[in-house]
Amino acid sequence: MSLWPLLDPARAAALFVACAALITLWFLLRPRARRVIVPSLALFELDAKTHRDPRWRERLALLLQLVGAGLLCGALVREAAPEAAPVVVEGVVEAFVVDLSASMRAEGRMDAVRAALAAKPENAIVTAGERPRLVAPPGLTKGRHDAVLAALRPGWGGAELLGAARLAESYGYRPIVLSDGPAPDGLAGQIVGEGGPDAAVVNVSASAGVGLPPEHNVAIILQNQGPERPARLSIKTDEGPLGEETVTLPADGRLRRVYRVPPSSSAWVRAVISAEGDTLPENNTSAAALPPLRPAVVWLVTPGNRYLLGALKLLPGLTLKVFSPASAPSPGDDVDLVIYDRAAPKATLNADVSAVYIDPPAGRGPMPLGERVEDPTFTTWDLTHPLFAGVSLRRLEVQAVSTVRAPAGARVLSATAAGPAWVVRDAAPRAQVLGFDLTRSDLPLTVAFPQLVYNWVIWARQGRAGEAPPPSVSAAEGLTVSPGLGAEVTRLDVPDAPTLTVPPGQRRVEGLAPGVYAVLDEAGERVQAVLFPEGELGRADVGPPVTLGDAAPPAEASPTPRWLWLVLAVVVVLALEQQVAPR
Containing H/E element for 567? Predict the structure, then answer.
């Protein structure tokens, strides 16, 4: 926004009156030449003959000073916009509705728009960005029309084409849509710009995986507009590249890839697709914020079980604490799994803590125990439960087993002829009850045992491997900030990106390029991803360009603004004043 000129005529006149009063007051009160009596005037007679009365010079200098002040105040006057009478063509005033959505960033599209607008300068111009705006009424001068064309820039959001058309109609204009896609139903429109294939990254999402050690799962959705073709997909974080892969993009379709990313302290992950002949490279990248990971914490409460302790120590990325039944404290919310081996908690566990009870004391487990059966035979197995993923277990030998009374909603994993022997409750608080002693069975001696213990930890870690990732937003939606004392927004995936200061009271930051941003406001600091608007993907293959008129003639030089002429006049007047003023 220009800061010059600043004043309307009334305020400029008031400023001139104030300046004139100060100049006149200084003229009247300025120090005068002192009268000095000397013994002889011989030395001054020659100078007195060449100098006349200086009073007319003083008055002329005062007049020139007042003229200079008046010209300077006139230069500060805001020029009134000329009344632009609509130019009527066959009784209809037409208005171009210009698509300023992100897909118009493709090379050549805005050039085609400007050529179409320049060919018909008598038409009005309405921009269809995130908000419709009338930027040029009909009948603008050549210089102002060219300035409007030069200022047209596509954004990163969508285009309210229908809303912009309705705005044009509210002024009484007939809208003509200029876009890289078809106009809304019922509206006249022209497709502009070169068509062609487009490869895009539709979305990148990241979540905390439940594996050991914890890792990130990154899902990437690619879209191809055009024939089937190969493309190169690369993934990186703020710590460096993770890898590349050659993928085959389906014809006019989408491709989904999911990758396991090693644990790191990175704040974001970004995917970039590159394909030959891509029409719109701006949508070739997308990013997501990586949620913080938390290690797995397991407590083992046992009087001694070298098989179970050895299997737990084999698991990577596990924080393990071992307690005797008499000294075991009550676990906190940070504990993922507690294994009570021939033991039970002294108090009811928190609903967020999962537990495995192995041959618990009678009356102290989460599920009632029934009769004790010696040398039982297992008759049924439910190997479809995730606890048995990767576990090959068809038979089990135990010395004795206590039947478990399965409550409502529980699932029986294994049973003998006398009743259930292994029951799991998947609803919170999660719990498993094994009615037999591991040390008096052959289960720890099987190859399935380490995998089974691993599955126990994964079962307990569901939803606890890391924080929930912040939801991504579309560039058309913008970032929401706290309207309190202001905010700071910094782009993280671009080196040395400047920090954007958001003034107090503003609730939304719009016009952001797709990327990952750090937002600091009254609500705290958070990382959030801004995505390329999905509605703008797949609009690259729009066919050949449409010529709406001859190319625009070369722009004429813009007329010199009035304020500049007045400033030059002030310089001339002050120079004359310096020559006239008495010395």
Answer: helix 562-580
User: Regarding predicted confidence, which is higher, 328 or 53?
Assistant: 328
Question: What letter represents residue 492's amino acid?
Answer: L
Torsion of CA 365, 366, 367, 369, to 10 degrees: 10
| Residue whose C-alpha is closest to residue 514's, from 468, 480, 469, 478 | 478
Residue 72: pLDDT band (50, 70, 90) is: confident
- CB proximity list for 452: less than 8 A, separation 6 or greater: 387, 388, 391, 393, 443
Residue 276 DSSP class: T
For residues 62 and 54, give the distance between their C-alpha atoms in angstroms, rounded to a whole number.
13
Do both 437 and 381 map to the same domain?
yes
Residue 179 sits in a domain whose CATH number is 3.40.50.410
Q: How confident is the model at residue 582 (pLDDT cuts 50, 70, 90)?
A: low
Angle at alpha carbon of residue 88, lines to 83 and 90, rounded to 5°? 175
Q: Exposed, middle or buried, 31 (CB in 10 Å: 0-12/13-18/19+)?
A: exposed
CA–CA distance, 497 with 390 (Å, rounded to integer): 47
How many alpha carbons fall within 13 Å on the CB side of residue 142? Answer: 9
Q: Pick the last residue of a domain from 191, 219, 254.
A: 191
**Looking at the predicted structure, is the pLDDT value of residue 4 above 60?**
no
Is the omega angle on the peptide bond into residue 495 within 30 degrees of 0, that is, cis?
no
E-only strand ranges, 435-493: 473-474, 479-480, 487-491
What the block records as the tokens of 81 is 């916009």
Which residue type does 18 have? A
Single pTM value for the model = 0.65
Top pLDDT among 542 and 425 is at 425
Contact 431, 366 (CB under 8 A): yes
Domain that holds residue 415: 296-460
Please determine, for residue 570, whether its predicted confidence score (pLDDT) is greater than 90. no
* Of 403, 432, 460, the domain-final residue: 460
Q: Sheet of 515-521: strands edge to edge?
A: 473-474, 524-531, 515-521, 487-491, 499-502
